[in-house]
Amino acid sequence: MKRLLFLTILSLSLTVKAQTVPPLKITHLTGNFYVYTTWRTLDAGPYPANSMYLVAPSGIVMFDTPWDTTQFQPFMDSLEQRYHKKVLFSISTHFHADRTAGIDFLKSKGVRTYSSKMTYDLCKEHHEKQAQYYFTKDTTFTVDGYTIEAYYPGPGHTKDNIVVWMSKDKVLYGACFVKSTDTKDLGYTDDADVKAWPASIKNVMNHCPNPAYVIPGHEGWDNNKSLQHTLFLLKESSKE
Ligand SMILES: [Zn+2]
């Protein structure tokens, strides 16, 4: 009886835990750019991961994939309902699952999936989903007059992290290379190169001048100061 009660409580608490992860959230950024957020439950509770997409006349371009695997289909359904357009391709910005989890799902829907060669290799090494295509150097994709530049600034959050720069709209998709001004520490750094990261941030500042929007991989993006904030956090962490 005790055991049964224990199992009941356990299953109840698991149910409650599963329900605490919010569903997919889509937020308009500027022009035809959107941020989408999915959550996974970590030890401290539900934790959000931001990704982006662009709605161009001939189709949708995704920057990274949803992290929450239960949201792959709802995400595709939501794009179909909102825009009646197909996803053309996706670009994953480093090898972690919050950027790559949905790659196989996208492939199964006929979406071309891209990453850098370094990310492609690290995905294999770490048993993460691998993109179908890779680029070996900085690559600019052009879709209906939008230039989408995949730029490798050097190591930071991971050794393969890239950012995506849309110079016309001054949108910088920093992903996990950039820390939100809402954060007080560097987050998960097991794969990071904190020594090289500051110089890599400065490379982005030079290469992507005056971004109007800077989108970090996690938490809020209500200002364009997250590059400076990441530098500040790196400086603080080097004193410890
Ligand atoms: Zn991340």
Q: What do these coordinates show?
A:
With 240 residues, the protein is α/β, with parallel strands linked by helices. It has a single domain, classed as Ribonuclease Z/Hydroxyacylglutathione hydrolase-like (Metallo-beta-lactamase, Chain A, 4-Layer Sandwich). It has 7 helices and 12 strands. The protein has helices at residues 2-19, 72-83, 97-100, 103-108, 117-125, 197-207, 226-239; strands spanning 25-30, 33-42, 45-56, 59-63, 87-91, 112-116, 133-135, 139-143, 146-151, 163-166, 171-175, 213-216. The strands form 2 sheets. It has a 7-stranded mixed sheet with strand order 1-2-3-4-5-6-7. Strand 4, helix 2 and strand 5 (87-91) form a beta-alpha-beta unit. Residues 4-17 have low confidence and may be disordered. It binds zinc ion. Residues 49, 96, 98, 176, 217-218 line the site of zinc ion.
